[in-house]
Amino acid sequence: NAGVTQTPKFRILKIGQSMTLQCTQDMNHNYMYWYRQDPGMGLKLIYYSVGAGITDKGEVPNGYNVSRSTTEDFPLRLELAAPSQTSVYFCASRDSSSGAPQETQYFGPGTRLLVL
Amino acid sequence: QKEVEQDPGPLSVPEGAIVSLNCTYSNSAFQYFMWYRQYSRKGPELLMYTYSSGNKEDGRFTAQVDKSSKYISLFIRDSQPSDSATYLCAMGAPLSSASKIIFGSGTRLSIRP
User: Fold this and answer.
1) B35 with A101: CB under 8 angstroms?
2) CB contact, 8 Å: B101 with chain A?
3) Chain A contacts of B65, Cβ < 8 Å?
């Protein structure tokens, strides 16, 4: 299993541009999450999904959109990039039905985004 | 007040030292307590978890939870340079929507050879 994969690894955007951060997991997990991590600020939840076709806002959703058309994919869309969106973005997934620790989330390697 | 507060560090100790990392929390609903380790330019990975007050040991790592004081700790014995990373505490509540968890801001740890 590849686990959780994210593309691209790094991207520079100009203010006002749009882009989609890709996230794919091959573990058949129901739950998926998008976080952003700013220096010294920990991880903030942007959006999450409990299954295909179901998404909901997290703590910091403004400026982002998501979709979940399949169990495997959970892309994050930035429509009008702003300098405040400069951050490292992590996608995570979790199996809602396994006997593993209930709150274990598996993280991807991250996408570093710089908005200039 | 933040739901989870974590000593920011950075923390630098010599190899072989005992390391103590700490977090406090304010939400009494938290019942699951976790420690994630994050190496530079990598995603966080679960290191330890516990559901109850007391100590849980795994090799050189011990997780301690004191629910009465709303305080959790991670101890690392015989620290190694390979333990150099950022450590994030995380907490969750039963029946929280989509099992969301709240992360601390992370403590950057450096072990000097």
Assistant:
1) no
2) yes
3) none
Q: By the 8 A CB rule, do A70 and A52 touch?
A: yes
On chain A, the residues whose CB falls within 8 A of the CB of B100 are 33, 45, 48, 58
Alpha carbon distance A21, A11 (integer Å): 10
pLDDT per residue as tens digits for the range A33-76: 999 999 878 899 999 998 999 999 999 999 999 999 999 999 99
The four Cα atoms B66, B53, B43, A11 give a dihedral, to 10 degrees, of: -50
Q: Is B112 exposed, middle or buried (0-12, 13-18, 19+ CB in 10 A)?
A: exposed
Contacts of residue B44 in chain A, CB cutoff 8 Å?
Answer: 43, 90, 107
Helices (H), B43-110: none
- Which stretches of chain A are DSSP H helices? none
Of B32, B88, B90, the CB nearest to A102: B32
Mutate one of A31, A38, A103, A112 to test the B interface: name it (highest B CB count within 10 A): A103
Structure confidence by residue, pLDDT tens digits, B43-83 = 999 999 888 888 999 999 999 999 999 999 999 999 999 99
CA angle in degrees (0–180, nearest 5) for B7-A4-B37: 20
**pLDDT higher than 60, residue A84:** yes
